[in-house]
Amino acid sequence: MSQREWIEKDFYKDLGVSSDASQEEIKKAYRKLARDLHPDANPGDTAAEERFKSVSEANAVLSDPAKRKEYDETRRMFASGGFGGGFQPGGGGFSGGNTTFDLGDLFGGGGAGDGGLGDLFGGLFNRGASGGANRSRPRRGGDIETQTTLDFRDAVQGVTVPLRLTSPSPCTTCHGSGAEPGTSPRVCPQCNGSGIVSRNQGAFGFSEPCDECRGSGSIIDSPCRDCHGSGVQERTRTITVRVPSGIKDGSRIRLAGQGEAGLRGAPSGDLFVTVHVRPDRVFGRDGDNLTLVLPVSYGELVLGSTVSVPTLDGRVGLKIPAGTADGRVLRVRGRGVPKRAGGAGDLLVTVKVAIPQKLDEQATEALREYLRAEESGGFDPREGWAGA
């Protein structure tokens, strides 16, 4: 491939996505094309094999945010004529007007770190300061996101819940290796397991997926009959998730290695579980404290009383001091949300007078007698109120 051919390649078109596609859209597009075009699934189809190589090359650049940025900037530079003229594949430079740019200078020939395009293309072609190709790494599986909804009390106290997921998982037949049971993949002799080969063309040094192993770094002589050599199968599984005590609504739990399986035994991605919490009809929450509203009678507030209140692990007695005002908050220590560092928050109890909607004749007369006694004693509930 010539320099100009490489520059003019449209990796976005190869993957069938727009130039402003998100990383997730690029990943999904590549995954579908790779599955459909994989040579193991199209034996003898040279067109599919060539298309697979193009898709792999495009994904190698666009799936890496840094390489993608460099690729986009480079294409814009050449498309806009940013070097003042045309590209001369055979002449070793760009020309425009009376000025000629030497490729040796243009691509960083003046030394490392001088800001030339050698630094720019270095990332795209996998070339370090020494000019050697970096070894490829196994392609990690994608992350998965899911959700679960818990009762309020389970979220406060902690619970173990089962989650049923359908996602790419290690093949149960070959255990993720991609090779038929009893056989093993072998290191690719052409790239020595790196998955890429370097080719020098004029002023450029190109790194591209190895033709022999199609960029994987290994060769499977006997592909697994169930996963066709990918080491991955779409299957449904159930995993158990331990939700820690005190988790809040909207929190996320990360389970390392429980995401999508990587190809041919590469590391799996992670699973992220978003937790939603149902409201409780009795308890509320304020940080590490639990809250509740306790209905009481007027007499209990005036005379004082000891009443039974619920907690997460049974009921406790709460003393209401004589003369307690309606709406006062009373604290029961250590009966709130368990803390990760140990201990627990408090239970905050707001007392609220419950007004009877209907009284019998005896109660009505007793209340009138009380009001008369209250008035004769000089009590005025509105004394000093609103300037009175």
TrEMBL record:
Needed co-factor(s): Zn(2+)
CXXCXGXG motif repeat segments: 171-178, 188-195, 210-217, 224-231
Annotated SUPFAM superfamilies: Chaperone J-domain, DnaJ/Hsp40 cysteine-rich domain, HSP40/DnaJ peptide-binding domain
Annotated positions binding Zn(2+) 2: 188, 191, 210, 213
One example GO MF annotation: heat shock protein binding
Domain CR-type, residue spans: 158-236
Binding note for cofactor: Binds 2 Zn(2+) ions per monomer.
Localization: Cytoplasm
CR-type Zn finger ranges: 158-236
Domain J, residue spans: 10-75
Keywords: Chaperone, Cytoplasm, DNA replication, Metal-binding, Repeat, Stress response, Zinc, Zinc-finger
A GO BP entry: protein refolding
Binding residues annotated for Zn(2+) 1, in chain numbering: 171, 174, 224, 227
Domain of life: Bacteria
GO cellular component: cytoplasm
PANTHER family the UniProt entry points to: CHAPERONE PROTEIN DNAJ 1 (PTHR43096:SF54), DNAJ HOMOLOG 1, MITOCHONDRIAL-RELATED (PTHR43096)
Function recorded in the entry: Participates actively in the response to hyperosmotic and heat shock by preventing the aggregation of stress-denatured proteins and by disaggregating proteins, also in an autonomous, DnaK-independent fashion. Unfolded proteins bind initially to DnaJ; upon interaction with the DnaJ-bound protein, DnaK hydrolyzes its bound ATP, resulting in the formation of a stable complex. GrpE releases ADP from DnaK; ATP binding to DnaK triggers the release of the substrate protein, thus completing the reaction cycle.
Subunit structure: Homodimer.
Protein family (similarity comment): Belongs to the DnaJ family.
Entry domain remark: The J domain is necessary and sufficient to stimulate DnaK ATPase activity. Zinc center 1 plays an important role in the autonomous, DnaK-independent chaperone activity of DnaJ. Zinc center 2 is essential for interaction with DnaK and for DnaJ activity.
HAMAP family for the chain: DnaJ
Listed name of the protein: Chaperone protein DnaJ
Source organism (scientific name): Rhodococcus coprophilus
Gene: dnaJ2
